[in-house]
Amino acid sequence: MNVLKELNQAKTNLCKTTIDLAAICESVELLNKRLEEERAALEKTRERLNSENAAEISKEIQRLSDDVLEFSKTGKMKEAGRVAEAVAIAEIKDVTRSSRTRETLHEEILEKIEETAQEIRSSKRTIEEGLERVNTAKMEAEE
Length: 143
Prior knowledge:
- Keywords: Coiled coil.
- This protein is mainly α.
- It has helices at about 1-50, 55-140.
- It has a domain at about 1-50.
């Protein structure tokens, strides 16, 4: 029975190995195909460089240089845009904070005005009571 298990295990391992080998062969074929494509592209480039005159090569180099500069400028513009966005966000936060500060100050001023009005009412009552006592005392003195 033990031998049978070992044979089944060996069969399973052999199947796995066969599948792995098939995958490796497929990968090798794919890499060979890509290598051939790259070789063909390289050969075309060599032929083009050999057949073109120096002026055409110079134009191509200049065009590529211009593309590099444009790409560089685009990157700088993106960075400048990010900086401008950060500044705008900071300004918005600052305005929001100052708006909240104004609201807070406005509320504090209204509270102070209310407190002052209350004190004035209290003082007015005290003065009225004092005047009433003075008038009462005057009337009593006259009688």
